[in-house]
Write a structure and sequence with these properties.
- The protein starts with a helix and ends with a helix.
- The protein has ten helices and eleven strands.
- The radius of gyration is 20 Å and the shape is globular.
- The strands form three sheets. A five-stranded mixed beta sheet has the order 7-9-8-10-11.
- The model is unreliable at about 10-20 (pLDDT under 50).
- The chain is α+β, with helices and mostly antiparallel strands.
- It has helices at about 5-10, 10-15, 25-35, 90-100, 130-140, 140-145, 165-175, 175-185, 200-210, 230-240; strands spanning about 40-45, 50-55, 60-65, 70-75, 80, 85, 110, 120-125, 150-155, 215-220, 225.
Length: about 240
């Protein structure tokens, strides 16, 4: 689903899609589904701002709407507390992402754990053909030393059927996934994989939560960090977000 596609036509379409209903939930759903029939609405609720409703979409993303569905906002809602601006939208979206990530079984990931019990974990959407993914992988031992468990999920940037997709399938179908990941990230070609695997499913999940490049790092609290971060900096962030 493309939010930009939804909002690009909102100015012309919303006036015609107004549904006069006493229930804001019904009015907002009717307006949005008229704009896009497959809009993945999960829940609608009052926001902390009076008169504004928050529309939770599948994948953790959020829109805001007037009670009658005539007006939409795509962006961040902040609350000023004690002189600080708290990003309420990011907090809510992170909770949704954290729930989706927690639903992925560890058996469907490639996990690199510290020798001692982990103090925190990160989930990394990765592509074996990605240079910065390879750089991040070279720092996994340091992340482990700092107490951070690294959990890989698949995100072939060029899509299903690409070279990166086939490489990830080879990793997930290997008897020793960790060894296969190490080899793939050092640019070694792996034997073709042939097994039931979650690569396509994880790619779709990444798209749904807003991943548009790799590596994309999800902290323990669901916050999504796009791009490579050096191990010391990443470990510090991960430990604070556990």
């Amino acid at each position: 689903m493309s939010l930009s596609r939804v909002l690009s036509g909102a100015a012309l379409s919303l006036a015609a899609s107004v549904v006069l209903a006493a229930d804001p939930d019904q009015a907002i759903r009717a307006a949005l589904t008229k704009l896009q029939p497959d809009m993945p609405i999960e829940a609608i609720a009052e926001s902390p701002m009076t008169g504004l409703f928050q529309v939770h979409l599948k994948g953790g993303r959020m829109l805001y709407s007037s009670a009658d569905g005539q007006f939409l906002i795509q962006g961040n809602l902040y609350q000023v507390k004690g002189g600080d601006a708290v990003n309420l939208t990011r907090q809510a979206e992170s909770k949704g992402i954290a729930k989706l990530i927690s639903d992925i079984p560890l058996s469907e990931m490639v996990v690199f754990s510290p020798k001692e019990p982990a103090k925190a974990h990160i989930t990394v959407f990765t592509d074996t053909d990605c240079g910065y993914c390879q750089k991040l992988h070279s720092e996994v031992p340091e992340l482990n030393r700092l107490g951070v468990e690294v959990r890989y999920v698949a995100y072939p940037r060029q899509g299903v059927g690409s070279h990166g997709y086939n490489g990830l399938v080879s990793v997930w179908c290997a008897k020793d996934r960790q060894d296969a990941m190490n080899k793939a990230k050092s640019r070694q070609e792996l034997p073709p994989g042939n097994c039931e695997n979650p690569v396509a499913k994880q790619y779709e999940l990444g798209q749904m939560i807003g991943v548009n490049g790799t590596p994309a790092i999800v902290l323990g609290n669901g916050e999504l960090i796009p791009g490579y971060q050096p191990a010391p900096q990443l470990a510090e962030i991960a430990l604070k977000a556990k």
